[in-house]
């Protein structure tokens, strides 16, 4: 886990980004590289503003063992990490177990879990509409973040994505649902395409590492517009 930012003292926001729970989704780690490139650029005025107001907790690769072994969905023990957040096992899913321990210790005001989707050729967000204790503020902030990112990034859209969960039907084994339920904050899953963005195809390189990095920069721009209201 990488920590960045002064945190703004006791009133500072606690911002979490994690990625590549599924090791085959390599675009997530390129996205993380773009995130860190920007957060470590102290000449960037958006970066300076964010770091003065928040402490960032970043896990660029949640599944290093699965990545090393070339797995698509699981860690070294054969566990799909994004299906154990409600009750992770320290032996078989230590990645989630210790990430959760740190979230409990430090708190969470905003959370994004970065993935790639094999089927849908778009960039989109999935939320937490089905959690039991959903509150109006966290849902409003999530919708505002989604709309802001769509306005700032031509590579992001809101028309295509996963169906929304009906009230009370969330799966708390999934990271986004568990975090939103536990901390009452806006939490979301970012999905990126494997091949290309159908809204703006690039015939030579498709959805490339560089485009993943640029999307991360726009995600920080969108966060900057609502961080004061978290």
Gist of the model:
With 230 residues, the protein is of the alpha/beta class. It contains 7 helices and 6 strands; from the N terminus they run E-E-H-H-E-H-H-E-E-H-H-E-H.
List the helices and strands and how they pair.
Elements: E1 2-4, E2 13-19, H1 27-39, H2 45-53, E3 54-59, H3 64-69, H4 94-106, E4 110-117, E5 124-126, H5 136-152, H6 175-183, E6 187-193, H7 209-226
Parallel strand pairs: 2-3, 2-4, 4-6
Antiparallel strand pairs: 1-3, 5-6
Helix pairs in contact: 1-7, 2-7, 5-7
Organism: Iodidimonas nitroreducens
Cofactor: Zn(2+)
Domain Peptidase M14: 1-230
What does this protein structure show overall?
The protein is α/β, with parallel strands linked by helices and 230 residues long. It has one domain (2-229): Aminopeptidase (3-Layer(aba) Sandwich), CATH 3.40.630. The chain is built from seven helices and six strands. A six-stranded mixed sheet has the order 1-3-2-4-6-5, sandwiched between helices. The longest helix is centred in the last third of the chain and has 18 residues, at 209-226. The radius of gyration is 17 Å and the shape is globular. The mean pLDDT is 97.
């Amino acid at each position: 886990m990488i920590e960045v930012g002064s945190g703004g003292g006791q009133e500072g926001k606690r911002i979490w980004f994690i990625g590549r729970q599924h090791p085959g989704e390599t675009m997530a780690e390129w996205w993380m590289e773009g995130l860190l490139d920007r957060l470590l650029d102290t000449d960037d005025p958006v970066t300076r503003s964010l770091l003065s107001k928040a402490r960032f907790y970043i896990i660029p690769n949640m599944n290093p063992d699965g990545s090393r072994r070339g797995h698509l969905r699981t860690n070294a023990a054969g566990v799909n990490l994004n299906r154990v957040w409600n009750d992770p096992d320290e032996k078989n899913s230590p990645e989630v177990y210790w990430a959760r321990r740190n979230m409990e210790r430090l708190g969470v005001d905003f959370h994004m879990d970065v993935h790639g989707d094999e089927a849908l050729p778009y960039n989109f967000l999935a939320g937490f509409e089905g959690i039991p204790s959903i509150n109006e503020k966290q849902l409003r902030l999530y919708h505002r973040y989604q709309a802001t990112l769509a306005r700032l990034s031509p590579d992001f859209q809101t028309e295509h994505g996963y169906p929304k969960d009906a009230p009370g039907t969330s799966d708390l084994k999934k990271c986004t649902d568990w975090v939103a339920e536990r901390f009452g904050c806006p939490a979301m899953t970012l999905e990126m395409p494997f091949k290309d963005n159908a809204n703006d195809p690039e015939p030579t390189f498709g959805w490339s590492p560089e485009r993943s990095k640029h999307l991360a920069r726009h995600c920080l721009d969108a966060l900057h517009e609502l961080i004061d209201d978290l």
